[in-house]
Structures are given as C-alpha cells and as structure tokens.
Amino acid sequence: MYECPPLRPTRNAPATRPSRRTPGPLPWLAAVAVVFAAVQLTFVVPGSGLAWDETVYVSQVGGNAPPAFFSAPRARGISYLVAPAAALTTSTTALRIYLALLSAAGLVLALWIWRKVLPTPVLVTAGALFAGLWPTLFYGPAAMPNLWCALGALAAAGWVVTAMRGTAMRGTAGLAQAAGAGTAVAVVALMRPADGFWLALPLALAVVLVPGRRLPGLCAALAGGLVAGCAPWAAEAYGRYGGLVARLHRAGEIQGGLGWNFAVDDHLRSLAGRTLCRPCDIAWESPATAVWWLALPLVVAGGIVAARRAGRGAVALLATATGVSMAVPYLFLVEYAAPRFLLPAYALLALPVAEYVAYLFARARRARRPAGFVALTLALAAHLAVQLSVLSHVVRTSHTTSAEFAATARELNRLGVRPPCVLSGDHAVPIAYYAGCASRQTGGHDASITAEALRALARHVPTAVLVAEGEEPPPVTDGSPAYPLPPARGPGPRRTHLLYP
Predict the structure, then answer these.
(1) Per-domain boundaries in the chain
(2) What is the pLDDT of residues 184-229, one digit of tens each?
(3) What are phi and psi of 312, to 5 degrees?
(4) How far apart are CA 293 and CA 314, in angstroms?
(5) pTM passes above 0.85
(6) Which residues on adjacent β-strands are paired with residue 423?
(7) H or E element at residue 320
(8) Which of 52, 124, 479, 492 is the most exposed place for a label (fewest CB within 10 A)?
(9) Partners of residue 364 on adjacent β-strands
(10) Are 295 and 382 in contact (CB under 8 A)?
(11) What distance lies between CA 295 and its chain's CA centroid?
(12) In the beta sheet, which residues pair with residue 425?
C-alpha cells in the first residue's frame, strides 16, 4: 500500500535546516512585521472611526456607549481582545494603534511556528504576500475577528505540521506542540465558532488518517481546543436563546440561511473595495483588482509541485487543504461576500504561493537570467500597487462613512439627545455609539424592544428614531416632531423624530 511521505525534510532539501551561521527567520519576519505595522499606522489609522460591527464589539467592554445588542451570529472573542485598550480609553486612535501593533506581533508569531519545516525565504515571502493584501492591511487595526482567525489558523496548522514532522509526540516538545495547536484552534473558535470548526476538521483528519503520522493525542488537543473556544458561545446560547439549536437557527436566519449558495462571483466583485457585498448585485467594476485572485489556484498548484521537489510537498498540501476548508463555507454556503471572510484562507495559501515565488526566483538566479528577475519583480510590484490602490479607496470610503456617523451624532446631541439616551431606527447601532447612547431596535436582526416599551422608555430618557430618506416613520413616532439630519453621500438616516421624556 502506498504511504504518504513523512512531513520532514529530506536530503534534497538542505534549505530547511539552516546552518549555525544563518541568523534564522526571526529578523526577517520582524522586518516584514515592522513594514506591516508602519503601513497600517500611516495609511489606515489616521482619522479613522469605528465601523458598524466594530461599535458592537467595542461597546461590550467599554468605549463610548452602553453595550449594543449582540445578535446570534456574533462571538465575543474580539471584544475580549480589545478589552485592555477599551477599558483604559475611549480613543479610537489609541485602539487602532494597539491593534496594529498586536496584529504585527501576531503575524511574526504565527509564521515563526513554521521555522522548523520551511526555509526562511519561503516564510518571509509568505508573510510579505499575506501582509500586502489590502484586506489584511485594512483589518489589521480593526476591531474585527477575521484577521485573528487567519493568524490563529496559520499558527494551528504550523503546530500540527511541526508535530507530524517528528517521529512521535513525546516529552515536553510533544506537549508544547499539542498545547499550541489546541490553543490556536481555541482562539479561532472564540473569534468565530464556525471558522474554528472548518479549521479543526482538516487538521484532525490529517493527524488520524495519514499513514505513519497518526497522532491521536494531537487530534484530542484540536478537539479540546475547538470545544473550549466554542464554550462561551454555547453557554450564551442556553442563557439567551433557549439552547444551542435555537441560536444556530437564529444565526442562520440573520445570515440569510445557510445552504448551497454560489458566492464565488460575489467575492470576485468585492475585491474592488466592497467591505460588504450584500446583496452583491453590482457590476464587476474593476477586473484588474481580481487578477491575482483568478491566478491563485494555478500559483498554489505550482507551489505544491515546487515544494514536493524540495521535500516539502506534504507540508504544502496540508496548508492548502486547510486553507481551502476555511474558504468553502464563504464561497459556497453563505449568500453574500466580504473580502475579510477569506483572510484565513489567504494566510494559509500564502505558504504554497511563497514556495512557487521562491522557486521562480531561485531558478532565475541559477540560470543567470536578469530578465526573469525583472519580470518577477515587476509582477509583484504591480500586484502590490493594485492592493495599495484598493486600500486607499477603502480607507477613504470608511473615513467618509464614520465622519457622517459622527456628524449625525453631533446633531442629535445638539438637539438634546445626550447620554443617557436611546436611539432606534435606521443605522441606530453605530450612530448611537458615536452619540454615547444605547441602541434599541423594534425589528430586524437587532430587535431588542417593543414599540410600546420604547415609548415607555422615552418618558424617562431622551429617545430618537432615525428615518432613512424615502421611508415612512414607524408608528411609534406618531405625533413626535421631526428634524433634518446632516446630508450624507451614502445610505443613512436623513431625519430624526424625537420622543421627548
């Protein structure tokens, strides 16, 4: 019977065993992280405000307003991550700096775990490629869970590959590898339980099915990490939703129903700079922004072949399988798209892509073909230029939206809606955060109060209902005065009805 080759270097791959005179990957990875953080701090952080989802996560642990309604699909992992900064200051800039530095450190740590199975050029190239994507740069300083799922997935796969490369799970090293893999899976599950499942599944299958590499103890650690990470979400399901099945059902409703939904084309269009494409019925405006995405399967395949020639084929296959697993639900089970959803897949697929890029550069060097070097360098420079161009567009749009939220909040404060206060209606969740108010919705995904209860609440605290342009005010506003709100370029409320105490 054919057996898969062991996940360890061969005599044809001396590059995986750096000599004592080689400084190792850490300085190079640190350099990538410094550039990664510098780009975030220079182009993304200045002047940024919190987006809708961010206001929900940050408000749970501090920030500028009472906790927003926490809907069924959300998990509290990112709230725990931002808690140290949010507890100390309400400054969005301080929070962004904290997350930018933390994400850069996380990138170094996740890649450093692979140091025993991948050579330095591959690790550094993978880090640079992943860090150079506009979703990675944009969400690095963001209070959103997806980048942390990506870094956790990269770390978990690294620990598993490192363990499978050895002969057995023995001693302190084996315990450290199992603990590292389980902890990484737990972090991902704490951020997004579904991502934790799709991460643990291929890794667990690998450690129990690969002939000669079966490690049931490591499989148990992966399963334990998944359970531990999902535990807070499951406990909250029983406390607030009447059980795990009920919460899963409600989460599916909010996400439009989970089932066969071909969203590949939606993700393709969203690469032009749509942070959320729902519904994704827009034209394909900028095909150039998706060239790299269309080439990705071919480059990954080339990377697997190159890695196999270097004795690292099984490593590249496992990274690819895990990345594909984490992409499957967002490409085929969810009916809308957001580029951040695929960050875990990009982080893992960056490894085989880096194998191919490193192979091409090495081949050009051996053949002494300057034209090959120039062509590869120009291709990578063009790719980076496209990513930075889209990043610039996304940052401008994000800053405009947050500025509009802030302007609306200031107008509401001027009209007398000041803390303690309550907002309801169109875009009430993010605007309430900026205004220092609580948000309470009478319908929709964030429904948390009845119209009668909202009226009763208005007898005690300033309460406003925000109404979008062209929309009729809800019955709860009957007889209340209406005031115009500052004009905005995008969707949002255009007037408010004040329900005076």
Answers:
(1) 255-367, 397-499
(2) 999 999 999 999 999 999 999 999 988 777 788 999 999 999 999 9
(3) -120, 25
(4) 24
(5) yes
(6) 439, 464
(7) helix 313-332
(8) 479
(9) none
(10) no
(11) 22
(12) 466
